[in-house]
UniProtKB/TrEMBL annotation:
CDD domains: metallo-hydrolase-like_MBL-fold. Residues 26-216 form the Metallo-beta-lactamase domain. Transmembrane segments: none annotated. This is MBL fold hydrolase. Keywords: Hydrolase. The keyword Hydrolase applies. SMART domains: Lactamase_B. It comes from Streptomyces antioxidans. GO terms for molecular function: hydrolase activity. InterPro entries: Metallo-B-lactamas, NDM-1-like, RibonucZ/Hydroxyglut_hydro. The keyword Calcium does not apply.
Length: 240
């Protein structure tokens, strides 16, 4: 099965754990396969992208995904979610209210970054609210393995969720708290004064030997995350 992931364009991170860098916006989508459940981390920028991810994962595993974790509420990470009908959706505390309140902002942001207007409107109109909100940490039993959802923000947004997959190696899906393909993007919804502390929590979660999966770019190590934390602290004038 692991060879199949790589042949299908996924990067194997650990047994039963893989990620894919999506075209155009280079956002990362992750998958964690247990005996009874399959967790998808983020869902791509459009319904079409989400549908492709769902059918591809189903083809590779012989089972449909059952759970989704959304790392933060930006269009390239959430707008494919409606293609995963029937899945339980998890997000950081407050994500549900944000997605209702800022639906038009989400749609316009997608269009501004190149999503077709009709596709953006359809995805936003069908976007489901998270079923489960994480305050602190939540452990998911996927059958023979666990995934720990951790509300480590705010930072990149007010609703940043990380996903730790224990094992050898441990894998941490960071969302856009960490970016490798360019400097971390601090938009109008970023909370810069808290971002370095969010990365401290991320490092404490994964430890020195984990593989850290950024929202955009190549997989990095703890030293990279620590250096980015220090750069953000200097950039935003945060002491400590």
């Amino acid at each position: 099965m692991e060879t199949c992931w790589e042949e299908a364009g996924w990067e194997r991170l650990a047994p039963g754990v893989a990620r894919r860098r999506m075209p155009q916006w280079d956002e990362t989508v992750g998958v964690v396969v247990g005996r009874t459940d399959i967790l998808v981390v983020d869902t791509g920028a459009t319904l079409r992208a989400g549908a492709g991810l769902r059918s591809g994962i189903t083809r590779l595993t012989g089972r449909r995904p059952t759970r989704i974790a959304l790392t933060h509420p930006h269009f390239d990470h959430v707008l494919g979610s409606a293609a995963f009908a029937g899945c339980e959706v998890y997000g950081a505390m407050g994500l549900d209210e944000w997605l209702v309140r800022e639906r038009e902002t989400l749609r316009e942001d997608a269009i501004r970054h190149g999503v077709d207007r009709d596709a953006a409107t359809e995805a936003v109109d069908h976007l489901a609210s998270p079923h489960h909100l994480v305050c602190g940490e939540l452990s998911l039993d996927l059958g023979g393995r666990t995934a720990l959802l951790a509300n480590v923000g705010p930072g990149h947004t007010a609703h940043d969720l990380a996903v730790l997959v224990p094992g050898r190696p441990e894998v941490v899906f960071c969302g856009d708290l960490v970016e490798e393909s360019g400097p971390p993007q601090a938009g109008p919804d970023a909370i810069p004064g808290h971002w370095p502390a969010a990365l401290d929590r991320l490092l404490a979660l994964g430890g020195a030997d984990a593989r850290y999966v950024p929202g955009h770019g190549s997989v990095v190590d703890a030293a990279f995350v620590r250096a980015q934390r220090d750069e953000l602290a200097a950039r935003f004038g945060v002491s400590g």
